[in-house]
Amino acid sequence: xxxxAVSAKILSHPEASLYVGDLHSNVTATMLLQKFSxxxxxxxxxxxxxxxTRRSLNYAYVNFEExxxxxxxxxxxxxxxxxxxxxxxxxxxxxxxxxxxxxxxVFIKHLDKRIDSKLLYYAFSTxxxxxxCKIMRNESGESCGFGFIHFETQEAxxxxxxxxxxxxxxxxxxxxxxxxxxxxRPDSPCKFTNVFIKNFGDELDETQLHELFSKQGEIRSFKxxxxxxxxxxxxxxxxxxxAEEAEQAVKTLNGYSIGNKQLYVGRFxxxxxxxxxxxxxxxxxxxxxxxxxxxxMTSNGExxxxxxxxxxxxxxxxxxxxxxxxxxxxxxxxxxGLAERKQERRMRLIKEHKQQLQTSNISxxxxxxxxxxxxxxxxxxxxxxRSTKHMAHVNSVECPNSIVVVGQERLAPTVINNATxxxxxxxxxxxxxxxxxxxxxxxxxxITAILLEVDKTKLHVQKSPDLLKAKIEKAIAVLQAYEAKQxxxxxxxxxxxxxx
Length: 500
Description:
Keywords: Cytoplasm, Nucleus, Repeat, RNA-binding. This is Polyadenylate-binding protein. One of its GO terms (molecular function) is RNA binding. The protein has 3 domains: 177 residues, RRM (RNA recognition motif) domain (Alpha-Beta Plaits), CATH 3.30.70; 80 residues, RRM (RNA recognition motif) domain (Alpha-Beta Plaits); 113 residues, Orthogonal Bundle (c-terminal domain of poly(a) binding protein). The protein is 40% helix and 19% strand. The protein contains 18 helices and 20 strands. A hairpin with a 5-residue loop joins strand 14 and strand 15. The radius of gyration is 50 Å and the shape is elongated. The N and C termini lie far apart (180 Å). The N terminus and C terminus are likely disordered.
């Protein structure tokens, strides 16, 4: 019966390949060959190494010629010391399904520091065939107080959980449960009893600190770290009986003022936990940076030539725009402005485009002419132009579409109607002024000023330049009469001499 059972186990692993783990980084294939060749002929040994650094990954594969020799090595050499570390030997599982599903995997914690993998293996071997047994250790080789056992079947694992959970192993009550991966564990608040304390310096000694923390609950242990001279390093640890007391101590004493310092009190974390948290924060920051620059970088990681900067206050943003807009960075001139949403920017550009079109419709028709100055007294003298007999003829003319000025293009009436009063004056000034010098160069400025005082609604309905010229001639006549009157008034009165 015993022979048939051994044969069945061997047949379940016909490749005769063993996994050897927990190796020291200095262990080589030659050392493993010397160790395992005493059992039987070996086909190959491979120590797995990093592809870049070529450092050992601390595990290897040993391939025997016969499965029976592999089985004998597993039974007799498991947990043997090599380079100061116990070997962890198990059958090579090429298919990862068994490892990933977690079937038959058991988690054990609250283990005594003196328990090693060999003692744990024999303590649980009565429940079924064990594929792997491991105690987790830190960098210095000390036990972390928990480990894993992988049974060949789930039935054996369930039996071990039912029998061993809550029992004592080396005078400590252990916890045994099914292994759960990080993804499958339920989200629950982390409970802790050990508290880390720092920033108390030399203000408080160990007795004063113990008294301060004893007010929060019952203390199991308390320690202040000291250097080789016995001086305090300014940090220590406090372990409470319950997690509730530890949480209360953190809430109450974290930030507690001691002289000019503030006490830091938080959950104690082991080095690998701190490193894991630092790594998580770095990954989170990297992800935030990726999201922040999303859309301004191409798929190849090249910049698209634009970006965004968010300031804490509007004043800082305005100052940045004033100082940085138009500045040179590298070989290019920067444009810096307020960030706008795509729809807002589109509406603003459409509005600006419409304004430019309206301005160009007016300004493109006229030249850069200087508006002449007017004489108020002259304007009063020529107001009768509006009531001349020629105006009836002008009003009877059919309303044209635009004014035609010599050397100018047509100006639509709607442009004048939509323009402001100042724009109307400027437009009429620039359209009537070019005609005036052709007839009376010395009076051109004054004549143009007179025309600007005529009703704009009548000016822009003229059909041809001839009608406008008629108004100019009328203005010249009035202007000449006004100047003649002024000249006569300026002559001195003459009197004949009388005889005395």
